[in-house]
Amino acid sequence: MHLRSSVALRIIGGLVLPVALAACSGSYTAHPSPAGPPQVHRVAIAYDISGRGDGGFNDIAYNGAKQAADNLHVELKEVTAKLDDTDDDRAERLRLLARSGYDAIIAVGFTYAGPLQTVAAEFPATKFAIVDDGTVDAPNVQDILFAEQEGSFLVGVAAGLKTTTGTVGFIGAVHIPLLQKFEAGFTAGVHAANPAAKVQVAYLSQPPDYSGFGDPPHAKEAAIGMYDNGVDIIFAAAGGSGSGVHEAAAQAGHWSIGVDADEYLLAPETVRGHILTSMLKNANVGTAEFVGDAAGFAFKPGLHTFGLANGGVGYATSGGFIDDIRAQIDAYAAKIVAGTIVVPETP
Amino acid sequence: MARLRSAGLLLLAPGAAFILAIVVAAVILALAGADPLATLRDALAYGLEPATLVAVTNKALPYYLAGIAAAVGFHLRLFNIGIDGQYRLAAFAAAVIGAVVTLPAPLHIALMIGVAMVVGWGWAAIAGLLYVRRGVNVVISTIMLNAVATGLIAYLLSPLRFAQQAAGSNNITTATIPESGWLSSIPTPAGDINGALVLAVLIGLGYWFVLNRTTIGFEVRAMGLAGRAATVAGMRSGRLALLTMAASGAIAGLVGIPQLLGATHRFGLDFPAGLGFTGLSVAILGRNHPVGVAIAAFVWAFLERSAQVLDLAGVSREIVTILQAVIVLSIIVAYELVRRVRAQRERLLVAHAVEGAPT
Question: Mapping DSSP to helix (H, G, I), strand (E, B) and coil, where does residue A255 land?
Answer without folding.
Answer: strand
